[in-house]
């Protein structure tokens, strides 16, 4: 009788058993962890594309799920990106991803997304007549926008530079 050659895998399977359920688990397995965490709030223009990424590592397979304002917006999948093709104001808020593998799950810190927009600017020309040396008060027209707009005043086509006399 000859010797039988048997191929032995370089890594033998190991299992963790809970009652009648057995879960593959090896010493080399690594729980998920984030490579980066969200920073300061992000401001993006309404209508633009937004790509959020969940950069995580750990033993594969890793699965990702996305939350918006604490509500699930995706189910678990291998996709680590969440893409909004055209931002709307309602897309503003807080986003989080959850990453999991067989070793556990991890919830990322919240990332704030603000959607920048500017409503229609109505041409409301204002003419005021005042006595020389008296203050002229011009009212800023109401414009729905986020963040608050920066206003620049012009007189006869020239920018008015703020000074101690002009606020």
Could you walk me through the main structural features you see in this protein, from its secondary elements to its overall organization?
With about 170 residues, the chain is mostly beta strands. It contains no helices and 15 strands. The strands form five sheets. Strands 4, 7, 8, 10, 11, 12 and 13 form a seven-stranded mixed β-sheet that branches. The protein has a two-stranded antiparallel sheet with strand order 1-2. The radius of gyration is 29 Å and the shape is elongated. The N terminus is likely disordered.
Sequence-ordered SSE layout with sheet pairings:
Blueprint (H helix, E strand, L loop, with lengths): L14 E4 L2 E4 L8 E2 L7 E4 L4 E4 L2 E2 L5 E6 L2 E2 L8 E4 L8 E9 L2 E4 L3 E8 L26 E2 L7 E2 L2 E2 L8
